Each structure stands twice: as structure tokens, then as C-alpha cells.
């Protein structure tokens, strides 16, 4: 009976290293990316060994193939680091929903506002939804009040992307992250702290 094993998926790029390189001649780069020249595989390996480094083929389809003299482990680490940074840059923004009630307590509203803040700081958009049940729909002003407070509390890190509107029994607004607003808020906070410190210093001098 023949056993078949599933091959594990590996997203890492494969590189030929040292003696595993097939090409007989290579365009060789040093660890800084500067071109050394076109060398035979034997010469390139000698050069790499003299520096205590590895010969890594980075462009096998080029004519001649391109190889780099580097520490292979550090090279792989740097490649993985680049991939992680690229993923962060290309991370698609998600829309998270935060549900509110027109008559929710200050404590509950604070909890939901903090949750929305976490989503926004993570780069996600936030869909604020105030749901009216039963006869609550006859008092839409309370829903608007809850939204006003929530939007105001998040204004330092967000902006209103889509203004509020009713969809059935739901009052909905969409917020998106706003780094400029965050910076402005931090600056205002810093200014307030400086003013407070200045006032405290003046009061101290007067009391003396």
C-alpha cells in the first residue's frame, strides 16, 4: 500500500546556496549590493569563503544569474522582515461594528467607546449602530445624543466618513481612522499639560 503525504505549504522563497548553485558563471554582488563582477562559480565560492560568508543565488533567471555574498541566516531574516513590513503596509482595512443603545448607561457606553477606539487604532473603520427596540423608536433624539457623545469621544483619532442615517430601526454612522486628528489631539493635550504645570508653578510661587 502506497502512503501519500500532503506536502506542507511553505511561502518562503527558495534560494540556491553555495555548491547547490547550478550556474557555471555568476554576476556577483557583495553584502552591500555593490557589484564585484562576473565570476565563475568556483571563483565566487572562493570569494565567499574567504569572507566567512555564503554565496546566495538571488536572481536565477538573469543572464548570467545573480548571486550575493552574504551571511545566509541574516539574509533570510532580512527577507522575512521585509515581507512582514510589506504585509503591514498592504493590510486591508476592515469595518468593525459597534452596537449602541439609545438609553445605555454611561459605563456601558464607555466600554463600547473603548472598543471602538481599539479598532480605530488598529487601522480599521468603525460602524456605529444605535438600535431602537419597541417604542424606543419614538425617541430618536436619544440615539442622536449617544452618537454625538461617542463621535466626540473618538474625534481625536477618527473622522466621520459617512454621516448618520436611519436604516429601519438602526441609526448608523461610519468612522474611519484619522492619524492627523490623533497628532492634533496629542499636541493639544501636551499644551494643556504645559499650561497646567505653569499655573501650578505660579500658584506655588504666590503661596511662598
What does this structure look like?
The chain has 5 helices and 8 strands; from the N terminus they run ββαββαβαβαββα. It is of the alpha/beta class and 208 residues long. Among the domains are: 18-74, Translation initiation factor 3 (IF-3), N-terminal domain (Ubiquitin-like (UB roll), Roll); 95-177, Translation Initiation Factor IF3. The strands form 2 sheets. It has a 4-stranded mixed β-sheet. A 4-stranded mixed β-sheet has the order 5-6-8-7. Helix 3 (106-121) links the parallel strand 5 and strand 6 (125-131). The chain is rod-shaped and about 85 Å long. The protein starts with 24 loop residues before the first strand and ends with a helix. Residues 1-10, 182-197 and 199-208 have low confidence and may be disordered.
Order of strands in the sheet with the most strands?
2-1-4-3
Q: Alpha-carbon distance between the termini? A: 95 Å
Strand content: 25-35%
Percent range of helical residues: 40-55%
Total DSSP helices: 5
Q: Quick one: CATH superfamily of the domain at 95-177?
A: Translation initiation factor 3 (IF-3), C-terminal domain
Total beta strands: 8
Average pLDDT, all residues = 83
CATH overall fold name of the domain at 95-177: Translation Initiation Factor IF3
- Biggest sheet overview: 4 strands, mixed
CATH class of the domain at 95-177: Alpha Beta
Note the run of SSEs as H and E: EEHEEHEHEHEEH
The CATH architecture name of the domain at 95-177 reads 2-Layer Sandwich
**Low-confidence runs (pLDDT<50, min 5 residues)?**
1-10, 182-197, 199-208
- Rounded to the nearest angstrom, the radius of gyration is 30 Å
Amino acid at each position: 500500500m502506497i502512503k501519500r503525504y500532503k506536502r506542507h505549504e511553505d511561502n518562503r522563497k527558495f534560494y540556491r546556496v553555495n555548491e547547490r548553485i547550478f550556474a557555471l558563471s555568476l554576476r556577483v554582488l557583495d553584502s552591500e549590493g555593490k557589484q564585484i563582477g562576473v565570476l565563475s562559480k568556483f571563483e565566487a565560492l572562493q570569494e565567499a569563503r574567504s569572507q566567512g560568508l555564503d554565496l546566495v543565488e538571488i536572481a536565477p533567471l538573469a543572464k548570467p544569474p545573480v548571486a550575493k555574498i552574504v551571511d545566509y541566516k541574516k539574509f533570510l531574516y532580512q527577507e522575512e522582515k521585509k515581507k512582514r513590513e510589506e504585509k503591514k503596509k498592504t493590510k486591508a482595512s476592515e469595518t468593525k461594528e459597534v452596537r449602541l443603545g439609545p438609553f445605555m448607561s454611561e459605563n456601558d457606553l464607555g466600554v463600547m467607546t473603548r472598543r471602538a477606539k481599539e479598532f480605530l487604532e488598529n487601522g480599521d473603520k468603525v460602524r456605529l449602530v444605535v438600535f431602537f427596540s419597541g417604542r424606543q423608536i419614538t425617541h430618536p433624539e436619544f440615539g442622536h445624543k449617544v452618537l454625538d457623545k461617542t463621535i466626540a469621544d473618538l474625534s481625536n483619532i477618527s473622522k466621520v466618513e459617512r454621516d448618520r442615517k436611519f436604516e429601519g430601526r438602526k441609526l448608523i454612522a461610519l468612522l474611519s481612522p484619522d492619524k492627523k486628528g490623533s497628532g492634533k489631539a496629542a499636541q493639544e493635550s501636551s499644551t494643556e499639560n504645559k499650561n497646567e504645570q505653569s499655573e501650578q508653578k505660579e500658584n506655588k510661587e504666590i503661596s511662598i
